[in-house]
Design a protein that fits this description.
Helix content: 55-70%
Strand content: under 5%
Shape: globular
Number of strands: 0
Structural class: mainly alpha
Order of helices and strands: HHHHHHHHHHHHHH
Number of helices: 14
């Protein structure tokens, strides 16, 4: 069963517990009661948490500037539709988005639960933030309030300021800087540069991320990020004439 089937099936809420589980339980049409029982399939739980996290945090981001505009909802649809791959009706994902958007709970409890679930896998949390950046940029407007929101999410995730700047640079928010995309200083020696590049490629390779809980449905987003990392390294190589 795909991650969408697990979410829409309703059992996902009980599998996750916490605020994520409560919201998914509400979507399934029943009150959530945390019994403390959890399935043993950790990978499935993480896949559901990642997917629900992207949807819920995107909905909260739409409220970041105080007003949920139709353009922001459309930006979410544009980003998510290719990921859906016709596996579920768009209305089902929109339903989760709308419940999260109307939910009075702030974004912090959801981000904290995700941070705890993926503790020790910072690359997964970076990929989740990467998906939120894709949604934020989908309407071609990156609002200062969205930046503040994403900075706060990154802080709760335990990501460094350098990691946040690296992810933001990869999305071209500022003038693209290959050094910032790789998170390195301009004066870094060639060998250290190669080492850092290889480290990023290993950490953000889709196979690595899938093994750590990123759903298969999000592989395209992971591949896009990896392509940006490769392009940044290629630009520096040409600039330095690295052999």
């Amino acid at each position: 069963m795909s991650v969408w089937g697990k979410i829409i099936g309703g059992a996902a809420g009980f599998a996750l517990g916490g605020p994520l589980g409560a919201l998914l339980g509400a979507m399934a049409g029943h009150a959530f009661v945390d019994t403390g029982e959890r399935p043993t399939d950790t990978r499935s739980r993480k896949q559901v948490a990642f997917t629900a996290g992207v949807i819920i945090l995107a909905a909260k981001m739409a409220k970041a500037d105080g007003v949920v505009r139709e353009e922001e909802i459309e930006a979410f649809r544009q980003t998510f539709n290719p990921i859906l791959r016709n596996e579920v009706k768009e209305a089902e994902v929109a339903r989760i988005f709308n419940i999260a958007k109307k939910d009075s709970e702030g974004f912090e409890p959801y981000a904290q639960q995700l941070a705890e679930m993926f503790r020790g896998n910072p690359a997964v949390l970076e990929e989740l933030l990467n998906c939120l950046f894709l949604i934020a940029k989908a309407d071609n407007v990156y609002h200062p309030k969205e930046n503040e929101y994403l900075e706060s999410v990154a802080e709760i995730f335990g990501l460094s300021e350098a990691a946040f700047r690296r992810i933001r640079a990869a999305h071209g928010v500022d003038k693209p800087d290959p050094y910032e995309i790789l998170g390195v200083a301009r004066e870094i020696p060639d060998e250290e540069l190669k080492s850092k590049y290889r480290e990023l490629v290993r950490a953000h390779h889709p196979d690595t991320l899938i093994a750590q809980g990123v759903p298969q449905e999000f592989v395209d987003a992971a591949n896009e990020k990896l392509s940006v990392i490769n392009d940044a390294y290629d630009r520096i190589e040409k600039e330095r004439k690295v052999v």
